Amino acid sequence: MNKYIVIDGGVSSPKGFLSSGIHSGVKKSGKNDLSLVYSEVPAYSWAMFTTNKACAAPVTLSKSHIQDQNIQAIVINSGNANACTGQKGLSDAYEMATVTASALNIAPQNVIVSSTGLIGLPLEMDKIKSGITKAAEALSANGSKEAAKGIITTDAHLKTIAVQVTIDNKVVTIGGMAKGSRMIHPQMATMLSIITTDANIDKAYLKYLLNDTTEKTYNMISIDGDTSTNDMVAVMANGKACNNELNANHPEVQSFANAFAFVNEYLAKSIVADGEGATKFIEVQVVNSNTLASAKLAAKSILTSNLVKTSLFGEESNWGRILCSIGYSGAQFDVDKLEISLVGDNKETIKIVENGQSTIFCKESAKKLLKERNITILVDFKTGSQNSIAWGCDLSHDYVKINSSHIS
Amino acid sequence: MNKYIVIDGGVSSPKGFLSSGIHSGVKKSGKNDLSLVYSEVPAYSWAMFTTNKACAAPVTLSKSHIQDQNIQAIVINSGNANACTGQKGLSDAYEMATVTASALNIAPQNVIVSSTGLIGLPLEMDKIKSGITKAAEALSANGSKEAAKGIITTDAHLKTIAVQVTIDNKVVTIGGMAKGSRMIHPQMATMLSIITTDANIDKAYLKYLLNDTTEKTYNMISIDGDTSTNDMVAVMANGKACNNELNANHPEVQSFANAFAFVNEYLAKSIVADGEGATKFIEVQVVNSNTLASAKLAAKSILTSNLVKTSLFGEESNWGRILCSIGYSGAQFDVDKLEISLVGDNKETIKIVENGQSTIFCKESAKKLLKERNITILVDFKTGSQNSIAWGCDLSHDYVKINSSHIS
Hints:
The structure is a homodimer of 408-residue chains.
Chain A: E1 5-7, E2 17-22, E3 34-49, H1 57-65, E4 70-80, H2 86-104, E5 111-118, H3 125-137, H4 144-150, E6 159-167, E7 170-180, E8 191-197, H5 203-216, E9 221-222, E10 232-237, H6 253-273, E11 281-289, H7 292-304, H8 306-313, H9 319-327, E12 339-343, E13 349-354, E14 357-358, H10 363-369, E15 374-380, E16 386-393, H11 397-404
Parallel strand pairs in A: 4-5, 8-10, 9-16, 11-15
Antiparallel strand pairs in A: 1-6, 2-3, 3-4, 3-10, 6-7, 7-8, 11-16, 12-13, 12-15, 13-14
C-alpha cells in the first residue's frame, strides 16, 4: 500500500486545476465572498446534496448539471444562500452558471453553482456577475487559499488540504476545501465541501467513492441536528496525473481510496472542530454490531442527544443518558451484552458500562478524563462485526447564547 | 353533546377507586415516594409504554400484565427507576407486584408496576416492601393529592385533574395524574401518566381510545427529544358509574371521548409547561396537509430543532429556521404554497412566510408577540385537510446549566 502524504495546498494543487477567491461586494465586511474552481479540461465529477425538501435554488440547478458527470467549473458565493427565493432564485442560479461559462468559454451545463449565507434574500446579481468576471481573471494554480476564504461565512478557521499518493509511479494529488459553520448566524446554511483531483479515474467508480465516503464522513457529523437547505459535497477528477484508470480492479485503488477518505474525513472533522460554542470534540465509535445500520443509528443518536451533549459540557460521566440514547435510536442490540467506555486523548480507557449495567468505575478518573478536549465514547455491542464512527461536539452555554441572539 | 366539567380531584375521584401516597424512605428528602391506585373491582385497563429498547424492568413486567386488560392496582415508586438493573431488577419488579397483590388480596397479574428516578441503582426492597404495606393501609377516596405527590421527582408542580360528564343520565368521572420532569437530574426517566374512570366501557374501545389519545397528546410533546427508559401511560375503567357500555356506537360516546381527550391533553401540556429552564410554552399547528403523517412529522421537527428553540428563547422571528426544520422532517409538502404565521396569546396573528418566501412583516410587532410566554407557530401546507398539533418549549441557558451540572 502506498501511503499518502499531506502537502501545503488545496483545490488547485492537483494538475490542471486553477482557483480563485475575490470580494464581489455581497459581504459588507469586505472579505472574500465569491470563489471559482476550474479544470482546464472537463472532469469526471459527482456531487451529493442536502436532502432538505426546502432546498435552495443552486442545489436544484446543480443536481441537474451533475447528471452527466462532466463538470469543468464550480462557482460559489458566500453571504447569501439563494434559498427560499422562488422563481427569481432559480433564474439567478442559472445566470450564475451562464456568466461563469461565458467567462471561461465552456458550456453552462458543465458548471455547478453553490450559494451559502442568509436565507430568503434575493441575490444582488450585479455584484455577483461582475464578481464572476473578476474571479475568472484571478484564476491561478496558487489560488487555493483565496478560494477557501471565499466560501466561508462565520467559520473561525480556513478548511483547506491537499495530499499526494503515488499510483502507477505517477504522483496523484487530491485537494479539498470546506465551509462549515455552527449555523451561528440566523438562517445560515451549514456545510459545503469541494474536492479536486488529477487522478485518472473511472466515472462510475468516482461516483461510488464519493457516495461511500460521504456516508462515512460528512453524514456522520452532527453539530445541532439541523440539516441545512444548501449542503453540497462535490468532486472533480480531470485525469491529468496520467495514471492508469482507477477502478475497483486497479491494484493500487486502495491507496487512492485511503487518501481520498483521509481528505474528506479531515474536512468533515474540521467542520465539527470549528463549532463556535463547542468546548469538546467528541468521537463515538460503535463496534461489533450485527448490522452497519444499527451501528450508525446508535452513533448518531448519542451525538445528537441534548442530554448527552450537556453532560459532556459539564464533564459528567452520565452513562445512563448514553445508554438511553442508544435505546431510542432504532438500533438493534442486546442491552445485556452492551459495554460503554470513555477513551481520552492518551488512549486511557475507562469502562463505565458492562453487560448493560454500571461498572464500579472511579468517578474521579472519569472526571479527569472528561476534562480533556478530545473524548471518544466507545460502545461495544458484542453481537457482530460491523463498526461505525461519528463526530460531534458538546452543547454549551455559548451555543444557546450565539443562537438566541440576533445578528443583523 | 354533553360538556364535561372540571372538578377538584384526581385518580380516586371516580367511584370505586382509592389511592394513597406515602414516604417509604427511598427519597432522602422525606417527600412522598410511593403511590398506590386501587379499584375495588378488577377494571378494564390498557397501557402504552416507552419504545426505548433499553426499557426498565417494571416496563417489561407491566407489558406482560396488561395483556389481558384486567388490572386492579397500580404501584409506583419514585426516586429510583429500576432501569439497567439486570435480572435483579426484574425480580424486584415482580416482587413489588406480589407484595402489592398480597396486601390487597388480589392476583399479582392484576397489578402493574412503575418506577421513576435514577437509572442503574438497585431498588432498596426492604423500604419498598414496607412502603407498599403502609400505602395499602393509607388507601382512601381522598388520596388523589398524596398519590400525585408520590410519583413526582423534580417537578415544580403537582399534575392532577378530574372531570365529570353525563352519559345515559349517569355522572361519569375521569381522574388522572402525571409526572414529567425535564430530565433535569442526571439519568432521570421522563414521564408517567395514570388515568382512572368509573365509566362502563367496552374493553376493545378503551384500548383504541388510549392508543388514539396518546398519539395526539403524550406523543406530541417534546422537551429535549430524549425518549426515556420508563415512560408509561395507563388507564383503568371499573364500570361503577353504571352507564350503558360505551363503544363506538354509543350515542354519547363523543362526549366521553372529548372529556377523556381533555384530561390527557391537560396532563401532557402540564408536563411541557413544567419544564425547568423553559421560558416559553410553544404550540405548533400544522394544518391542511395531504396526510396526517406529514403534518405530525413537520410539527415535531419544528419543536425539536435546537435552532428553532434557541431563537424562540431569544425572541427572534427566524422563519428560515422553521422552514428549514420542516424541510428535513420527512414531511411531504409544496414549499411554494407554504405559509407560516406566529400567533400570540390574544390571537394576534402575524404571517411571516407566504408561498414559501418571507412576507414584509413588521419586525417590531413580531418581537413584541414573541415576548409572550405562550406562542403558537401556525404552518399551513395549503395542499390537503389533515391537521396536527404538538407542544414544546424553548432551549434556554438554564436548560444547559441544569443538565450539565451534577446532582448527587
